[in-house]
Each structure stands twice: as structure tokens, then as C-alpha cells.
Design brief:
This protein is mainly alpha-helical. It contains five helices and two strands, in the order ααβααβα. The protein starts with a helix and ends with a helix.
């Protein structure tokens, strides 16, 4: 259960870009009045790619669509041998980054983290091919989202 929570937290951490909108100060008399109608939510296909490693708002989880976007964007970065699948070392590098993003105080080289990565790899490798495809990784990270 903790593994799933950490992966969901990690996915959420990577999926929510920091939102910083410049707004005129409230005391600015030349500022236009606020819009009375909220802007429509942007289509997922037109959203900018989320930056990885940014903290997520507390209590939020990435949606399966957001997880898929992150996997599509980040997968080539970790697929060092360009096979289209992640071996255990490539998968481990990604999971260490997720773990560091969610808990910077954890030593990524500790035995606990290595055990956690091994368990995550076994769970993500649905077809037991000793590699994790984009589809498997997306499914694994999306469970419970």
C-alpha cells in the first residue's frame, strides 16, 4: 500500500506544474475588473508538458490522463538504451527520482529504497518480461488515481 501511495504522490509531484499568474494589485485603479465567467479548462492535449520534480498541492493525486502525459514525456529520458522498454536499472533511476521528489530526506541508495524499487519493478512488469513498457508503467502509476 505504501508503494502505491509513494508512486501516486510521485506522479502527482510531477504532474502539477507550478501555477504563477501575474495579477494586477487590488489597489490598481487601471486594472480591468475580474472576469465574471471562469475560463474553460484547457484541453489535455493542449496543456503544456508538466515539469518534473515540482511539488504537488497537498492532498491531490494525478489523474490517469496526467500520468500518461508524464510517462510519454519522460519515458525517453529514462530509456537509456532506446529499446522502448525500461529494464530494472532504468526503471530504478526513475523511481529514485520520484522518491526523492516526494521525500528528499530518504537516501536513494539505502537498502529500503532498493527493496522498494525491486517491488515496484515486479509489480509494474505485468507481463513478467523483465522490462516495463510505457503501457505497463502508465497502468502501474495510474492504479488508484
Amino acid at each position: 500500500m505504501m508503494l502505491k501511495q509513494m508512486l501516486l504522490i510521485g506522479a502527482a509531484a510531477m504532474s502539477f506544474p507550478a501555477v504563477a499568474q501575474a495579477a494586477p494589485p487590488a489597489s490598481d485603479p487601471t486594472a480591468p475588473p475580474p472576469a465574471s465567467e471562469p475560463a474553460p479548462a484547457p484541453d489535455a492535449s493542449t496543456q503544456p508538458a508538466p515539469a518534473s520534480g515540482q511539488p504537488a498541492p497537498s492532498g491531490t493525486a494525478a489523474t490517469p490522463t496526467q500520468v500518461a502525459q508524464i510517462v510519454d514525456q519522460e519515458f525517453p529520458t529514462y530509456d537509456a538504451d532506446s529499446t522502448g522498454d525500461l529494464n530494472e536499472a532504468e526503471f530504478g533511476a526513475w523511481m529514485k527520482k520520484l522518491r526523492a521528489a516526494t521525500d528528499p530526506s530518504v537516501d536513494p541508495e539505502s537498502a529500503d529504497v532498493k527493496t522498494w524499487i525491486g517491488q515496484a519493478f515486479a509489480a509494474a512488469d505485468g507481463d513478467k518480461s523483465k522490462s516495463v513498457s510505457k503501457t505497463e508503467l502508465t497502468g502501474f502509476l495510474s492504479r488508484g488515481a
